[in-house]
Amino acid sequence: MKKITNKIRADVLKMIHNAKSGHPGGALSSVDILAVLYKKVLNIPKEWDKSPSFKERDRFILSKGHASTALYATLSYFGFFPEKLLMGFRMLGSKLQGHPSSRTQLPGIEVSTGSLGQGLSIGVGIALALRLDKIKSKVFVLMGDGEMQEGSVWESLMNANAKKLDNLIVIIDKNNLQIDGKVQDVKTLEPLDKKLEAFGFKVYSIDGHNYDEIEKTLIEAKKSNKLCAIIANTIKGKGVSFMENNAGWHGKAPKDDELKLALEELNAK
Q1: Confidence of residue 268 (pLDDT cuts 50, 70, 90)
Q2: Which residue from 114, 90, 93 is spatially nearest to 253, judged by alpha carbons?
Q3: How far is CA 136 from the centre of its chain?
Q4: Which residue of 36, 55, 57, 161 has the fewest C-beta atoms within 10 A of its own C-beta?
């Protein structure tokens, strides 16, 4: 798994460097979660909408759409589309825009996301639709902790509880930083676990960089018949020493020398 996540992190940085634009911090913090999801947990056909089991697939929504590079690099690694497309990130006419576009544009993408606070409401709607259609798939929504400050998130959590959507799994990439600094200084969420419990969720708190812990928790949540929320404690900029826990890398592209140093740390070229 370490080789896989190092490769994905390296691709994230190369994409952002090539585009001279992007969000490395929150992308790097979510890589381990995404890698475990796509390798160990999600039931999603790589042949995408051509698969006979397409309707029965699990749904994954990246609500924190500014971390799109992490999702693109993960999808490419696991064979949803060719790696050569990655360097088109944020280029005019590319299918890999700054935020994920619709599944008609790129295999593996469920919905357009990026406006923070919207992904969960979409996930709630999809989970309800799956139940009505008697499809037993699960809906996974990956959010950022800064995103949890949005009022629409709490409306969605309340609605998920009201509808008893046991096919919905919320994952929170809790790296404690956002563009303006520390989440707790901008608008504190704590006690986040107690708040989620009050909204009817079974809450797990895990190390978001421990592959075994991520896998075990995701599988347990997938098997559960309860509303589940996973607080994944992560490090913004994980894997690159000078980016870790540094809010300055929320939305900044690495320069040539910075990319070289980062790739050396990741044992990648």
Answers
A1: confident
A2: 90
A3: 22
A4: 55
Tens of pLDDT, residues 52-67: 999 999 999 999 999 9
| Structure confidence at residue 269 as a pLDDT band (50, 70, 90) | low
Cα separation, 41 vs 219, in Å, equals: 6
Question: Residue 26 and residue 33: Cα distance in Å, rounded?
Answer: 12
Q: Which residue shows structure tokens 């693109």? A: 72
Which residues are within 8 A (CB) of 69 and not within 5 positions of it... i.e. 6 or more apart? Answer: 11, 12, 15, 16, 22, 23, 24, 27, 89
Q: How far, in Å, are 47, 124, 125, 160, 184 from residue 163 at the CA level?
A: 32, 9, 10, 5, 31
Q: How far apart are CA 27 and CA 262, in angstroms?
A: 14
Report d(CA 194, CA 188) in Å as an integer. Answer: 13
Amino acid letter, 38:
Y
pLDDT in tens, 143-163: 999 999 999 999 999 999 999
pLDDT at site 85: 96
Distance between CA atoms of residues 26 and 49, nearest Å: 29
Tokens 């902790």 belong to 145
Sorted by where each starts, the structural domains of the chain and their CATH numbers stand as: 2-265 (3.40.50.970)
